[in-house]
């Protein structure tokens, strides 16, 4: 794997550490250091994590004393590290939503005499002391309990709202956060998808949640799961609420929605979607076999395997990829929040089971015993449709969620 792939993997491993200064952190002291980004100066308090060519630091703004998480990426020549960092910065400049992590400050500077030929990218984010949904699910698993169903749905609704914002985002609109002439630069960076060849770097293991302490019995997969389904007419009504304009306008796809990329705000109930280095234009067509392989390699590098949509495992020539890759990931996210593990890594899968084959065939089972209602199963089945042409858009998912769980 090239250095860019190593960087991507290390950043994934640091996903929770970036923001959760008070939970599950590998903390250590660093030499006193200040970072100047424009008029703001940040004093490094301590290191939160590191890996590869990146560090995550807890910093204090000198003037205000406010604490932030500072992501520091060393971008060596001949790698894609700078392009990846710029893409994440530009996404932060563009997107503004209550459920999307705000980019507080940023800068790219020369490495200096000690790092000749390199550049250093800095990104400043809020510190979310409650950690990620991965942390919360793991804590619940350790305590032998499940998260409350209403809490799970509240978090799920918030993530869906962020995803709908991304999918319907218009570059010509006024919803971006950038100023002046920076808008066109951000657009260009986000639209230029660097599909450098890579191999799956094994990151799928980082998101394995492990089986519950409860005893599980396999149930029939998919919609034959032994629960009361929503009547088909009502389901069609929920699907019919999709805006035709939104169904035809691509926007952007996150492409790496997972437990570790959903933080909890300090109120303990508002989800914050993070890590936009994986963001891509939502719609793409593989016009040649080479383009198909590039898309597949890009997905292997940037989309965590247990949450990856089936169409991204084996991209064929003339394949059309759209924003519904995120809907598949939302289904995996909801399953993991409710049951403590992702649907294609569960105790019913058996040793040696291929996650890719299980996803392509939508082979998953629900636990035989659960404190949650069948409505969660209904939602999961609604999203985990292996044929992307039959999979719903996020608007439809929100409509069904609101129908099953009225406010």
TrEMBL record:
Tell me which UniProt keywords the record has, alphabetically: ATP-binding, Kinase, Nucleotide-binding, Serine/threonine-protein kinase, Transferase
GO terms for cellular component: cytoplasm
Transmembrane region(s): none
Query: What does the record give as the reaction this protein catalyses?
Result: L-seryl-[protein] + ATP = O-phospho-L-seryl-[protein] + ADP + H(+); L-threonyl-[protein] + ATP = O-phospho-L-threonyl-[protein] + ADP + H(+)
List ligand-binding residues for ATP: 71
Gene Ontology MF terms:
ATP binding; protein serine/threonine kinase activity
Q: Which InterPro entries does UniProt cross-reference here?
A: Kinase-like_dom_sf (IPR011009), Prot_kinase_dom (IPR000719), Protein_kinase_ATP_BS (IPR017441), Ser/Thr-specific_kinases (IPR052239), Ser/Thr_kinase_AS (IPR008271)
Which one Pfam family would you cite for this protein? Pkinase
- Enzyme Commission code: 2.7.11.1
Region (Disordered), start-end ranges: 196-227
- Residues forming the Protein kinase domain are 42-407
Q: What class of enzyme is it?
A: transferase
Which family does the record claim for this protein? Belongs to the protein kinase superfamily.
Protein's name according to its UniProt entry: non-specific serine/threonine protein kinase
Species name: Coemansia biformis
């Amino acid at each position: 794997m090239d250095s860019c792939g190593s960087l991507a993997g290390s950043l994934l491993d640091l996903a929770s550490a970036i923001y959760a200064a008070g939970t599950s952190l590998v903390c250590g002291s660093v030499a006193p250091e200040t970072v100047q980004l424009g008029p703001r100066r940040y004093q490094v308090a301590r290191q939160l994590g590191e890996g590869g060519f990146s560090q995550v630091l807890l910093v204090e703004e000198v003037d205000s004393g406010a604490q932030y998480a500072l992501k520091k990426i060393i971008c060596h020549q001949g790698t894609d590290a700078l392009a990846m960092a710029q893409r994440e910065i530009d996404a932060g400049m563009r997107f503004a939503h209550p459920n999307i992590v705000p980019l507080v400050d940023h800068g790219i500077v020369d490495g200096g005499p000690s790092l000749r030929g390199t550049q250093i990218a800095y990104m400043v984010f809020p510190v979310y002391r409650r950690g990620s949904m991965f942390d919360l699910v793991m804590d619940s698993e350790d305590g032998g309990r499940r998260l409350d169903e209403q809490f799970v749905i509240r978090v799920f609704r918030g993530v869906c709202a962020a995803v709908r914002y991304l999918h319907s985002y218009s570059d010509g609109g006024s919803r971006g956060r950038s100023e002046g002439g920076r808008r066109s630069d951000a657009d260009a960076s986000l639209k230029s998808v660097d599909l450098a060849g890579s191999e799956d770097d094994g990151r799928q293991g980082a998101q394995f949640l492990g089986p519950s302490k409860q005893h599980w019995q396999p149930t029939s997969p998919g919609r034959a799961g032994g629960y009361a389904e929503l009547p088909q007419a009502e389901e069609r009504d929920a699907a019919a609420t999709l805006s035709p304009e939104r169904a035809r306008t691509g926007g952007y796809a996150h492409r790496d929605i997972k437990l570790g990329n959903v933080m909890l705000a300090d109120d303990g109930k508002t989800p914050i979607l993070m890590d936009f280095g994986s963001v891509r234009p939502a719609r793409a067509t593989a016009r040649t076999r080479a383009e198909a392989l590039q898309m597949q390699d890009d997905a292997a590098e940037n989309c965590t395997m247990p949450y990856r949509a089936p169409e991204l495992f084996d991209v064929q020539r003339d394949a059309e990829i759209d924003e519904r890759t995120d809907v598949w990931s939302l289904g995996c996210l909801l399953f993991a929040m409710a049951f403590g593990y992702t649907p294609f890594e569960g105790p019913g899968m058996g040793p040696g089971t291929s996650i890719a084959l299980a996803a392509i065939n939508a082979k998953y089972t629900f636990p035989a015993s659960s404190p949650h209602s069948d409505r969660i199963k209904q939602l999961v089945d609604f999203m985990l449709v292996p044929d992307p042409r039959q999979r719903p858009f996020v608007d439809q998912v929100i409509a069904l969620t609101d129908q099953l769980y009225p406010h």
